[in-house]
Design the sequence.
């Protein structure tokens, strides 16, 4: 192990990195000794299943840790020099990673998806910083004009227009610290995509996007210990948090927001059946934009990928939400399903070929025929060489049988499969 080796969390591992050592006892995992270039996402899945939480990489020989993640890696226990701690063994590839020069086969659709994901990542980062600044101003009692965020909403709208899946999928990835800000960005993108699906005019679409970005602004003035509490809230804490819609609407009014934007902040927790808050409004007494907000807000909350929290995969979220009788406006929910897709990017699916795959790009022909990445055999019950298949391509014989629950299979980091395009 050289001096350049860096300890990183398994969640930071990317294809192209040179892995020199794996955390955990070698008895617990099937990897042999030696250093290897990571070229197969199936190996990440295998490491995850073997319970490996951290690895060491040699940045002089492979892809480096992205600069935004670097800071985290360096301040982590052990820092840049991993030393020779207990229970850690040098790593070498599983049999599938030893073949030189092999890379996952790329279906044509995923090339543009890869560049869109990269752009979406940059945009999400910039958007997150802008939302953070807005929250900070609100905390300090400064009334910011929400319309200042319109250029950002336009940029997110352009990204949604080009490829809604990319930004919606990237905005699902959140850390504990940036959760509220990234959630705002995600709801903005989902609202814009839904507005497009519903054929709303330009003004309504802009209001939907801006309202999505601002819907939780009231959280800026909620007590930080309650807002950032990692576990479940007590009833008393929940009662405090329930004040955020009114607080947000007030902040937005002070800042000169349009009434529709204020309305989304005020009523995004109302339920179609009248059981929501703060006013218990029912049915069409809730504005269309706020009914849209309620759906986008819940969808992003339940599908958000955060460390130490099990997110629902997108397909499961759709199924569950469809079963919440009376919670959402059915007509708008159906439009939402169409806008996000039956098998959104990141869904785990079972293939007719008895393999598991993750959806990595939406279908060009049909919602039922997306581009998938196959990585696991149900016959041998182990990871297989990753293969990218465009189910819409002529001659493709495989198809999706149905969605699968990642929790049932113990997969907690499927995003590594669709992010590494
Ligand atoms: Fe909220």
Sequence:
């Amino acid at each position: 192990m050289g001096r350049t080796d860096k300890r990183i969390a398994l969640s930071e591992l990317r294809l192209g990195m040179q892995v020199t050592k794996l955390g955990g006892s070698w008895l617990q995992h099937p990897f042999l000794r030696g250093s290897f270039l990571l070229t197969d996402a199936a190996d990440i899945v295998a490491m995850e299943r073997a319970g490996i939480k951290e690895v060491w990489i040699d940045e002089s020989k492979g892809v480096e840790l992205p600069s935004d993640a670097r800071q985290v890696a360096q301040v982590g226990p052990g820092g840049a020099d991993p030393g020779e701690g207990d229970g850690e063994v040098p790593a070498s590839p599983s049999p599938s990673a030893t073949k030189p020069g092999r890379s996952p086969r790329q279906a044509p659709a995923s090339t543009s998806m890869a560049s869109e994901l990269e752009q979406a990542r940059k945009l999400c980062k910039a958007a997150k910083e802008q939302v953070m600044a807005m929250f900070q101003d609100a905390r300090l009692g400064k009334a910011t004009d929400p319309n200042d965020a319109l250029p950002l909403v336009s940029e997110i709208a352009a990204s949604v227009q080009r490829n809604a899946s990319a930004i919606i999928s990237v905005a699902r990835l959140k850390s504990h610290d940036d959760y509220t800000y990234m959630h705002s960005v995600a709801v903005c993108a989902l609202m814009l995509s839904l507005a497009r699906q519903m054929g709303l005019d330009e003004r309504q679409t802009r209001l939907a996007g801006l309202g999505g970005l601002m819907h939780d602004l009231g959280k800026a003035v909620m007590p930080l210990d309650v807002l950032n509490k990692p576990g479940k809230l007590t009833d008393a804490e929940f009662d405090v948090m329930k004040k955020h819609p009114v607080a947000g609407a007030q902040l937005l009014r002070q800042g000169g927001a349009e009434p529709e934007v204020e309305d989304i902040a005020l009523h995004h927790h109302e339920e179609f059946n009248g059981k929501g808050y703060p006013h218990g409004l029912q049915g069409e007494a809730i504005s269309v934009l706020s009914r849209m907000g309620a759906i986008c807000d819940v969808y992003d909350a339940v599908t958000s990928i955060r460390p130490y929290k099990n997110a629902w995969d997108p397909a499961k979220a759709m199924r569950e939400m469809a079963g919440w009788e009376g919670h959402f406006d059915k007509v708008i929910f159906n439009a939402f399903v169409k806008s996000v897709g039956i098998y959104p990017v990141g869904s785990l699916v079972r293939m007719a070929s008895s393999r598991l795959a993750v959806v990595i790009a939406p279908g060009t022909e049909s919602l039922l025929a997306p581009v998938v990445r196959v990585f696991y055999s149900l016959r041998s019950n182990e990871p297989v060489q990753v293969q990218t298949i465009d189910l819409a391509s002529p001659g493709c014989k495989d198809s999706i049988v149905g969605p699968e629950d990642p929790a049932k299979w113990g997969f907690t980091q499927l995003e590594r499969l669709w992010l590494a395009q």
